[in-house]
């Protein structure tokens, strides 16, 4: 989730129907300030570093990321009913270790996280890292996205490194369609942890049920406090929604539909929670007629796309084959 784009309805509700004037990190600082958080943990849980592993060659990585994953009908049905799916053993420890090395290199070279401790780097596939380019354009993941959505092909919307440094707080309840200017229901995000995510590190957590978002429709979005996060949590609790906040094993990848509500607890460990997230949309989808933006990033991800027209820009190649 990124892009700082709100639907017209949400923008009107929230009173933020104006351009975001600051940078990416400041946006995340603002966004995390909307979380109904208990504050920083008293003590960080000490975790051992990821076990050392032999790094694959670029050729081996390319092959791994191009090899189709055999998704079962039951898994696809589960995704369509629940709005999310966690799939084990999608990627090897070596491939993940290579991505970790790259994320750490780029994080060290950047401006660092903002005051919230959340570091977000997007469009990494356009940068100098061949490893992250292979991850973002991976036909293995892009095909999985297409098969889960039940569409012929998917295009990349954007990639996003999401790193929560030790002590970084909670990501509030939200659903991504709230942010996307794409006129399609066929949008999904892969969330690839680059190390295990045990409970205290704050795994991404999902509200089960493809229609669960309707329970949150009456909760007003407020850009200045944590009332939306708390209101959504209350609405789900009252309706008995199942929330899956299970840990992620190494190699496990989740996929969440753009209408699936999700949140993540803070990172209460001494290690950064490194994730590579990529969003995909169905080939043939159009840009909405009237994109409403709180930043200029819409043109960064979909440069030259025209309101109401099929999206087919050089930055949105087909990635499912
Ligand atoms: O990583 C996080 O804490 C939030 C990620 C998210 O909301 C997303 O990928 O859609």
What does this structure look like?
The structure is a single chain. With 321 residues, the protein is of the alpha+beta class. The protein has a single domain (8-37, 71-301), classed as q2cbj1_9rhob like domain (Jelly Rolls). The chain contains 9 helices and 12 strands. It has helices at residues 8-14, 24-32, 58-66, 73-82, 93-109, 130-136, 139-149, 227-238, 297-301, and strands at residues 84-87, 118-122, 154-164, 171-174, 182-183, 187-193, 204-207, 243-244, 253-257, 262-264, 273-282, 286-287. The strands form 3 sheets. Strands 1-9-6-11-3-2 form a 6-stranded antiparallel β-sheet, with helices on both faces. It has a 4-stranded antiparallel β-sheet with strand order 4-10-7-8, covered by helices on one side. The longest helix has 17 residues, at 93-109. The two termini are 24 Å apart. Mean pLDDT is 90; it is low at 1-9. 2-oxoglutaric acid binds at residues 1, 162, 171, 176, 189, 191, 204, 262, 264, 275, 277. 2-oxoglutaric acid (AKG) is lined by residues 1, 162, 171, 176, 189, 191, 204, 262, 264, 275, 277.
